[in-house]
Each structure stands twice: as C-alpha cells, then as structure tokens.
Amino acid sequence: MLxxxxxDAAWAQAPAGARIWLPEGASSVAPAIDRLFYIILWITGIxxxxxxxxxxxxxxxxxxxxxxxxxxxxxxxxxxxxxxxxPALILVWLAFYNQRIWAQVRxxxxxxxxxxxxxxxxxxxxxxxxxxDGTFGRTDPALVNDETGNPIGLxxxxxxxxxxxxxxxxxxxxxxxxxxxxxxSKDVIHSFFVPQFRMKQDxxxxxxxxxxxxxxxxxxxxxxxxxLCGLGHYRMRGFLTVESLEAFxxxxxxxxxxxxx
Length: 261
Hints:
Strand content: 15-25%
Number of helices: 4
Strand order of the largest sheet: 3-2-1-5-8
Number of domains: 2
Number of strands: 10
Order of helices and strands: HHHEEEEEEEEEEH
CATH architecture of the largest domain: Sandwich
CATH topology of the largest domain: Immunoglobulin-like
Shape: elongated
Largest sheet: 5 strands, mixed
Helix content: 25-40%
C-alpha cells in the first residue's frame, strides 16, 4: 500500500539519532517490531494532521458571520464510502502484517542453543542455568528457602542439579545465540521486560511461560518488572549482561566454582 510503503521507506532512511521513540534494539526481532511501530506511527500521524487541518479549515470558513445562515446538507455518499473503505483496507493490511510478526516473535520457538529459567518473586528475579549437562535439576517448592540461598527450591540431591547455577538479579546471555527462557512466578503476577529486546512477558503463578530471544549486541541492560506487584515493585530490577560465548562460559565456570566452594 502507498501509505505503508512511504512510512517504511521513511523509517529505513531515518538516522538512528532521530528514532527517539524507542531505545536502540538489541535482538533479532527488534527491527521487525520497530518497523511495525513506525509504520503505524506514520499512518496515524498523517491521518491526524489531515483530519485536524480539515477541521481548522471548516472552523474558519464556516464560522458564524452576520448575514449568513447555516444550511443542512446530507453530504456525499461517494466521499463517505471512500473514507470508510480506505481505513478499512489499511486496518486489514495491518492485521495481516501484524500477525506475521506476531507468529515470528510468539509462535513456535526456533531451535535453541541455551535454556534459562527465570522465576519472579517479590521483589527479585531468580535465574536458573542448567549447567554443562544442559539439563535442569529437579525443583521442589518444599525446598524453597531464601535465607539459605535456594530461592527456587533446587534439589541438590538430583544428579542433574550438581552443576546447576542459580543467581539473583544477574542474567548473562551469549550474543548471537538463541536462548529459550522458561518464565515462572513464586507469588504474584510479574512482567519480565527488557525494552532493548522488545520483550515483555507476564510471569504467572502456576504457569510456565516460554519466550525466546537472540541478542545481537553486547552490553549491559536492565530487566524491569512491568507489572505492579506490591509495595516493593519499584526496586524489582535485574541486570542483564550480553557477552561473547567465550566470556559467558567463563562466567558460568566462575559461578559454579563459587557455588561449590
């Protein structure tokens, strides 16, 4: 469509500094989501300016003046049909375009290189890495004990749990690797939100949600909770480090050594 094509071209030509609406994307799906955002922004912006301009013209041209009387007119059926059909076509196109992006982001996850468990609680993010064997150890709610450093109830008697690593508010991910995240909550509804990844997913008690991400840039990011989850909601923030695969494995080895010492 002409309007969408113009909006897409304008987005592509805009310098990075001019994209003030969103933080710089750092995931493989961020460009597609940003493109959809700017297309909708351009369409709605053009329509808003056009409608308000016509309104101002009518306010001036048909204002009350001495010697002039208002007259009733039915209007034009052709114009009404045009301004009904065009928005309908735009909305239908956006629906199909949006569905394609939604299927890419929220559909069947692609083959993953790494799995990570994330469990929200008031007011922290508990991160669970399966270790070198790639298998999560068994967890048991009866074993949950924040004071002894077992916030997710990891059963250390399980052989698969021997090399598992649990951190609090510290999530490390390797760059250019597909990561499958298993998202849970211990108490109330939380929302796992990383703006640079264009990722926001609720963590619901009793349900394990799945989201996937492929980080494309190294750096330090912040994990926010985007759901009002209690009086301490304001301080529920985690720290995400995207690093090279070598640095990631070195960090895991360091954490395992500290954990076993």
